[in-house]
Model the fold of this input.
Amino acid sequence: MPISPKQLLDLAVQAADEKKAMDIVALDLKGISLIADYFVICHGNSDIQVQSIATEVRKQVQEAGVDIKGIEGMDTARWVLMDLGDVIVHIFHRDEREYYNIERLWSDAKVVETV
Done:
C-alpha cells in the first residue's frame, strides 16, 4: 500500500534524525510550488555524516516501498539532493547550507511539525 506524502515526509525526517542530522526543517510547498509537496532540509558536519544521512534516508524509504526518482551529490557530499517524488530532501554539508540558505528562498512556505 502506498504511503501518503506526509508519511513519506515523516519517514525521511526520522531517518535523517537517526543519523544525527542537524537543524532538520520540513517545509510545506503545497500551493507554492509544483516541484513537490514538501522539502526536508538538514545538514551534517562532515562529508561522511552527509553520506550517512543520505544512505539512511534511501534505505528507509526503499524499505517502505517508495521509488526514489533520483539522488545527486553523493560523491562530493556537499549537497545531496534526493527526489522522493512528493518529498525532496536536501542534505547539506554545514558550510554549504549557510552559503545557499534555501530556507530563505522558500520563505513563503510553512514549517511543518514532524514526528
